[in-house]
Amino acid sequence: MPRYRLADFAMSDKKAGLLISTAFAATFLLGVSALALSENARADSAPAESDAKPYIVQNGRVDHHVFNGYRRYGDNCLRCHGPDGAGSSYAPALVDSLKHMTKEQFENTVINGRQDVNTANQNVMPAFGLNPDVVENLDDIYGYLKARSDGALGRGRPKQIGDDDN
Ligand code: HEC
User: Fold this and answer.
1) For an engineered disulfide with 155, which of 18, 56, 84, 134 has Cβ 3.0 to 4.6 Å away?
2) How far lies 18's CA from each of 15, 38, 119, in Å?
3) Domains assigned to the chain
4) pLDDT surpasses 90 at 79
5) Residue 126 φ then ψ, to 5°
């Protein structure tokens, strides 16, 4: 029976590096196509009118998607964009941004980030593409901000549909 030296099996560092980055790229692509798929599924089950709102607010109360968006916004975006999407000296008011941005533009900015290279003060919007807490809840974050932007929802912690009043 032939004997192999360990070196015959060892991968060069270069090869290993390539393998790892390929694995990363594949995982990322999988994630993106999964997102695209769920987007399609959602679109299929959506009502026929194309102007259907991306949120549910009834008598000032929100469904669990909007509430989830409110919480994720608080965890990931508030420190720069201010409470309730109202903006800060560092980052723009998303309540205003969503009056002229499409959902696709919003998603692209959050996933890829953005840097205003023209201003003296280099304010940076970080890329959240690898942050599952943001990526997996992006529809809900968008819904919450769109409800705020449309004026359908006031400032502060929203009450949920079905909650009692205290
Ligand atoms: C570290 C601070 C910071 C955090 C955290 C942050 N942003 Fe930003 N964001 C910015 C800055 C600064 C800009 C403006 C960038 C520019 O001028 O191009 C920006 C721009 C944006 C824009 C484009 C607005 C417009 O009017 O063009 C969107 C949309 C946005 N952010 C969404 C989010 C969301 C959603 C989150 C949370 C998931 C988030 N941001 C978290 C700093 C931040």
Assistant:
1) 84
2) 5, 30, 38
3) 57-166 (1.10.760.10)
4) yes
5) -70, 155
pLDDT of res. 147: 98
17 CA → ligand 1 middle, Å: 33
How far does residue 124's CA lie from ligand 1's centre (Å)? Answer: 7
Residue 1 has pLDDT above 90, yes or no: no
pLDDT surpassing 90 at residue 30: no
Ligand 1 pocket: which of 71, 73, 81 to mutate (most atoms <8 Å of CB)? 81
Report the atom number in ligand 1 closest to the C-alpha of 131. Answer: 38
- Checking if the pLDDT of 45 tops 80, the result is no
Nearest residue CA, atom 32 of ligand 1? 110
Q: Which two tokens stand for residue 45?
A: 């089950």
